[in-house]
Amino acid sequence: MHVHILGVCGTFMGSLARLAKALGHHVSGSDANVYPPMSTQLEEAGIALCEGYTADNLMPRPDVVIIGNALSRGNPEVEAVLDAKLPYVSGPQWLAEHVLPGRQVVAVAGTHGKTTTASLLTWIMEATGHAPGFLIGGVPRNLGVSSRLGTAGAPFVVEADEYDTAFFDKRSKFVHYRPDVAVLGNLEFDHADIFPDLAAIERQFHHLVRTVPGNGQLVVAAGEPALERVLAQGCWSPIVRFGEGDEVAWRWRMLSDDGRRFEVRHGERQASVAWSLSGRHNVSNAVAALAAAAACGVGLEEGAAALSRFESPRRRQEVRGEIGGIQVIDDFAHHPTAIAATLEGLGAGTHSGRLLAVIEPRSNTMRLGAMRERLPASVAAADRVWWYQPPALSWSLDTLADACPVPAAVSEDIETLVAEVVADAMPGDRIVVMSNGAFEGIHEKLLAALEVRHGG
């Protein structure tokens, strides 16, 4: 079967393309933004890429077109699909129909931490010999790819996004997966472009809860009011909670301020973990993964041992390079809660240098200004922050910078921004770049400029 994918370089769609190829299909795809790491993954898998959207990309005629949720009416290739009456389907539906049947499906949901938690869970399963299948919205460095079919019959881990499915299916992606185990890591308002308020997102999460069977399991973060409201709407599956309190089934305790050492208890069993990640949020992600892995037959001790060898996914506190004692760190955080958690985690250790934050408010929610009041406080753990004003942002960042509790500046030009950051940076500092996009290759530009100034 010839499968053609629109939006193929998106994290979900590119991962899906790899699975389709592994199933033996001929796979091609189109996208307006073809850049690594996804483009590299696809090319290595032998998937033909077309840059740009045009009716010509549909020749020869595919058997089915999978349309990503970033595509909408008016896109020339979407219009060509409809005019030619080609069979088309959403990515989540295709995954549910062609990959998930017959598998124990573990879905990882939540406003923050889905990619990291799904990566942690997949690595635990892999390291303990279960050879799982997976589809993750990032590239776990332990595994090297964002998706894999895994061994037939083995569990399948899927990052379960609440964003809408496609222009013709406005339900959240995760309602298609019908998981046996669902992780609910947290829940707060996001995606202001499609959800009017938090209650609307809670309804979608309850749709997910409704699909978990009675002999399945919900792994739920304790102390999350929005998740408790979701469960209060009705729940028909066993619930296992995780958190810091003694009353929860899976409880954790920090053994170091930065979260690089922590203890986990479940019943009479306990284990300690020393690993490379930092921050309370990542400890919580790890314990969620341990609890979900236990539902798939992995013991606490062996799961904890696997965590000590875990490497964070790309773009999650990923050190991109170090020049003259100055690190450049890449992180995907783009919501105020995630920005604060990442900076607090990085700032909690014994590192002697400063933490310099460079942030692009790029997400649809940020562009609408829905979170602008919360952004100043989110950078309190940094020593200095630079805000990038992208052309598509309709509101000025100047007032935001004035309200920051740390020294802050705004730049509308990448080259100027790089020059200012590099001029300020000193040996021992860490520069953490935060965006959910490519940020115009700023990481490489920072490293190149640092090499000129500090490379010796």
Helix content: 25-40%
CATH level 4 superfamily of the largest domain: Mur-like, catalytic domain
End-to-end Cα distance: 56 Å
Overall domain count: 3
Query: Oligomerization state of this entry?
Result: single chain
Number of helices: 15
Strand content: 15-25%
Radius of gyration: 22 Å
- Main β-sheet, spatial strand arrangement: 8-7-9-6-12-13-14-15-16-17
At the fold tier of CATH, the topology name of the largest domain is: UDP-N-acetylmuramoyl-L-alanine:D-glutamate ligase
CATH class membership of the largest domain? Alpha Beta
Overall shape = globular
Give the tally of β-strands: 23
CATH architecture classification name of the largest domain: 3-Layer(aba) Sandwich
Largest sheet: 10 strands, mixed
The parts where pLDDT drops under 50 for at least 5 residues are: none
Binding site for ATP: 110-116
Catalytic activity: UDP-N-acetyl-alpha-D-muramate + L-alanyl-gamma-D-glutamyl-meso-2,6-diaminopimelate + ATP = UDP-N-acetyl-alpha-D-muramoyl-L-alanyl-gamma-D-glutamyl-meso-2,6-diaminopimelate + ADP + phosphate + H(+)
Pathway: Cell wall biogenesis; peptidoglycan recycling
Family: Belongs to the MurCDEF family. Mpl subfamily.
Structure characterization notes:
- The chain has 456 residues and is α/β, with parallel strands linked by helices.
- It folds into 3 domains: 2-91, Rossmann fold (3-Layer(aba) Sandwich); 100-307, UDP-N-acetylmuramoyl-L-alanine:D-glutamate ligase (3-Layer(aba) Sandwich); 318-454, Mur ligase, C-terminal domain (Protein-Tyrosine Phosphatase, Chain A).
- Helices cover 32% and strands 23% of the residues.
- The chain is built from 15 helices and 23 strands.
- It has helices at residues 11-22, 38-44, 76-83, 91-98, 114-127, 198-211, 225-232, 280-295, 300-307, 336-347, 364-367, 375-378, 398-403, 414-424, 442-454; strands spanning 2-6, 26-31, 48-51, 64-67, 88-90, 105-109, 133-135, 147-148, 156-159, 164-166, 169-172, 181-184, 217-221, 239-243, 250-254, 261-266, 269-274, 318-323, 326-331, 355-359, 384-388, 408-411, 430-434.
- The strands form 4 sheets. Strands 8-7-9-6-12-13-14-15-16-17 form a 10-stranded mixed sheet, with helices on both faces. A 6-stranded mixed sheet has the order 18-19-23-20-21-22, sandwiched between helices. A 5-stranded parallel sheet has the order 3-2-1-4-5, sandwiched between helices.
- Helix 1 (11-22) runs parallel beside helix 2.
- The longest helix has 16 residues, at 280-295.
- Residues 315-437 form the Mur ligase C-terminal domain.
- Pfam families: Mur_ligase, Mur_ligase_C, Mur_ligase_M.
- Keywords: ATP-binding, Cell cycle, Cell division, Cell shape, Cell wall biogenesis/degradation, Ligase, Magnesium, Nucleotide-binding, Peptidoglycan synthesis.
- Its cofactor is Mg(2+).
- It catalyses: UDP-N-acetyl-alpha-D-muramate + L-alanyl-gamma-D-glutamyl-meso-2,6-diaminopimelate + ATP = UDP-N-acetyl-alpha-D-muramoyl-L-alanyl-gamma-D-glutamyl-meso-2,6-diaminopimelate + ADP + phosphate + H(+).
